[in-house]
Amino acid sequence: MWRYLVGALAAMLMMGAAALMMQGHAQSEVNVPPPPPPVQPVASATPDPLPSPPEATEKTREEKRFDRYDDDHDEWITQAELLKSRRKSFARLDKDGDGKLNFREWAHTTYDKFAKADADKSGRLSRTEFATTRRKRKPKKKPACACAKD
After folding, report:
1. How much is the average pLDDT of 39-57?
2. Locations of Basic and acidic residues compositional bias (predicted)?
3. Measured between alpha carbons, how far is residue 11 from residues 14, 19, 78 in Å?
4. What is the mean pLDDT of residues 139-147?
5. Which one of 55, 88, 105, 115 counts the least CB within 10 Å of its CB?
6. Measuring CA to CA, which residue among 99, 101, 71, 94 is closest to residue 83?
7. Domains in the chain: boundaries
8. Residues 103, 111: Cα–Cα separation, whole Å
9. For residue 71, what is the enclosing H or E element?
10. Lowest mean pLDDT among 22-31, 94-103, 112-121
11. HSE on the CB side for 26, CA within 13 Å?
12. ∠ CA 138-126-133 to the nearest 5 degrees?
């Protein structure tokens, strides 16, 4: 029961604070001075310089992405154009060229990695053999500038 009383008291205090803030805000708006009149430009004796040529706009990321897929540059992307990169990847995996991927062709990387790591050709990997399958991480790039330290 006491929670309800505390909640009601908190709600009334918040409404009172809001009323005071609104009243103070309304009073401050009444005393605002009018804005100064706009300044008119002074006519100069020298003629205006020639306008600069318009700058070329940089293509957006989406425009560049669209252009990569639009091979014939007709402003339309066909299904064949969109699937072209996938077809290349598929053809790379389809070793026997039958137009179908069997499991071995699809997982060839894993098969090759296992065969390379299985040094004793036992058909299973020990801890030391498995450690050789670890992905090699690229080292972090150093900063571009060789700034002198103070």
Report:
1. 66
2. 56-71, 118-127
3. 5, 12, 61
4. 71
5. 55
6. 71
7. 61-93, 95-134
8. 10
9. none
10. 22-31
11. 6
12. 20
Average pLDDT, rounded, for the chain: 78
By three-state DSSP, how is residue 38 classified?
A: coil
Tell me how far apart the alpha carbons of residues 81 and 30 are, in angstroms, rounded to a whole number: 65
Q: Can you tell me which residue has the tokens 């401050």?
A: 28
Measured distance CA(26)–CA(20) in Å, rounded: 10
Mapping DSSP onto H, E and C, the string for the chain reads CHHHHHHHHHHHHHHHHHHHHHHHHHHHHHCCCCCCCCCCCCCCCCCCCCCCCCCCCCCCHHHHHHHHHCCCCCCCCCHHHHHHHHHHHHHHHCCCCCCCCCHHHHCHHHHHHHHHHCCCCCCCCCHHHHHCCCCCCCCCCCCCCCCCCC
Question: Which amino acid is present at 53?
Answer: P
Give the model confidence (pLDDT) of 64-95 as tens digits: 888 888 888 888 888 888 888 888 888 888 88
Cα distances (Å, whole numbers) of residue 147 to 20, 59, 140, 150: 56, 33, 18, 9
Judge whether 117 and 132 are in contact, CB under 8 Å: yes
Q: Token digits for 18?
A: 């809001």
